[in-house]
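Field log, afternoon session.

UNIT: design team B
ACTIVITY: writing a sequence onto a fixed backbone
BACKBONE:
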C-alpha cells in the first residue's frame, strides 16, 4: 500500500509519462503460443458463458466498496472508507446508475454514465455534466466487471503459461512496442474450472505508466452466467494489500429478450 501512495505522489510531482509494458521483455512471436492463447481464451469464455453475458439487458446488484487507501479515495466521489451501493448495470449499452448510501442506508447521491456521459440524478431527473472523478470511478467499475467476459474479444491473445496450477494469457495487440492508446492485460485462470483469478492491467486513459492487478474471487452462477462476488484492486499479485475492494451481496439478471 505504501508503494501505491508513493507511486501516485511521485508520478504527479514529476509528471512521469513512461508507458507501462506488461510483457516485461518477453518476445511474443510464436505462432503456436498465439494459437494456444486463442484456445485458452475460448475455454475461459465457455466456462464463464460470456456469449450469454452479452445477451443480458441489465444486472441489478448491491454491495460495498471498501477502501484501504485514503489518498486515492480522495480522487473519487466515494465519501466513506466503506461505501454501500446499489447499482443498475446496462450490459449491452455499458451504462450504470450508481446509488451511494451512508452507513445508515440513506442515499447520499445517485451518479451514473449513459451514452458515455456522466450524470447526477436529482429528484429523479438526470443532470448531465462533465465529472472526471465520477467518470473514472464508474468507468473503472464497469471495466472491472466486464473484463473477464470481454477481454478475449481484443486483437491478440498469447499463451504465457499453461501449467497444471494456472493458465496465463497476454491480451493486447501484436505491436512490438507498447502503444499509448492500447492497454495490455495478463489474465490468469484456474485449469480446473477456467474461472478468472487475476487480471494484470494498464490504464492508459488514467496514467500511461499505471499498472495494477485485479483479484477476482467467489464466483457464482446466475442463470448460467458466472459472476464474481469480490473484485479486489491490488498493487500486484504478490502484494495482497488492497487499494479498494468491491464486494457484491447479490445479483439480479434481466435478459434482453425479457426487458420489455
Amino acid at each position: 500500500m505504501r508503494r501505491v501512495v508513493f507511486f501516485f505522489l511521485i508520478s504527479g510531482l514529476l509528471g512521469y509519462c513512461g508507458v507501462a509494458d506488461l510483457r516485461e521483455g518477453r518476445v511474443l512471436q510464436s505462432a503456436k503460443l498465439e494459437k494456444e492463447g486463442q484456445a485458452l481464451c475460448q475455454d475461459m469464455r465457455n466456462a464463464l458463458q460470456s456469449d450469454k453475458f452479452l445477451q443480458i439487458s441489465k444486472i441489478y446488484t448491491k454491495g460495498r466498496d471498501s477502501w484501504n487507501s485514503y489518498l486515492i479515495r480522495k480522487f473519487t466521489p466515494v465519501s466513506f472508507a466503506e461505501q454501500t451501493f446499489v447499482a443498475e448495470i446496462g450490459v449491452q449499452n455499458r451504462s450504470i446508475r450508481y446509488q451511494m448510501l451512508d452507513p445508515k442506508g440513506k442515499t447520499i447521491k445517485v451518479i451514473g454514465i449513459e451514452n458515455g456521459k456522466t450524470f447526477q440524478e436529482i429528484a429523479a431527473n438526470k443532470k448531465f455534466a462533465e465529472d472526471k472523478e465520477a467518470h473514472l470511478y464508474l468507468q473503472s467499475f464497469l471495466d472491472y466487471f466486464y473484463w473477464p467476459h470481454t477481454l478475449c474479444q481484443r486483437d491478440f491473445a498469447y499463451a504465457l503459461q499453461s501449467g497444471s496450477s494456472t493458465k496465463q494469457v497476454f491480451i493486447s495487440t501484436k505491436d512490438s512496442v507498447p502503444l499509448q492508446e492500447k492497454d495490455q492485460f495478463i489474465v490468469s485462470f484456474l485449469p480446473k474450472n477456467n474461472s478468472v483469478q487475476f487480471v494484470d492491467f494498464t490504464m492508459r486513459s488514467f496514467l500511461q505508466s499505471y499498472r495494477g492487478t485485479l483479484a477476482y474471487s467467489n464466483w457464482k452462477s446466475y442463470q448460467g452466467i458466472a459472476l464474481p462476488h469480490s473484485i479486489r484492486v491490488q498493487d500486484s499479485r504478490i502484494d495482497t494489500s488492497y487499494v479498494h475492494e468491491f464486494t457484491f451481496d447479490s445479483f439480479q439478471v434481466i435478459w434482453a429478450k425479457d426487458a420489455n
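LOG NOTE: DSSP finds five helices and 13 strands in the chain.
NEXT ACTIVITY: expression trials, pending approval
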